[in-house]
Design brief:
2 domains; elongated; mainly alpha
Length: 90
């Protein structure tokens, strides 16, 4: 094997190691639990004004967000085409 091949393999192994470390770190951080959602919902509810837009990102968290703040999202807001008409977005 040439030095160039060994260097390429070493770089590939290093990149794989970094990728695995990132995956483990992300999984260890977890997703917010009910307590975190309750705290966030309180912040939004305390400052929310009629007409404010409430959205959730990433999209996979939308069902959980609606469970905690769904009463602030009328059907017209949920079915909106864009967010241009909203003055404030949560």
């Amino acid at each position: 094997m040439s030095k160039r091949s060994i260097a390429a393999i070493a770089c590939a192994v290093l990149m794989l190691g970094i990728a695995l470390w990132e995956i483990v770190a992300t999984l260890a951080a977890g997703v917010p639990g009910d307590e975190a959602w309750a705290r966030a919902a309180k912040v939004v509810r305390d400052a929310h004004r009629p007409g404010d837009l409430v959205v959730f990102a990433p999209s996979w968290v939308d069902p959980t967000g609606r469970m905690h703040l769904g009463d602030l999202i009328p059907i017209e807001m949920a079915a909106r085409m864009d967010d241009a008409r909203y003055g404030r977005i949560w």
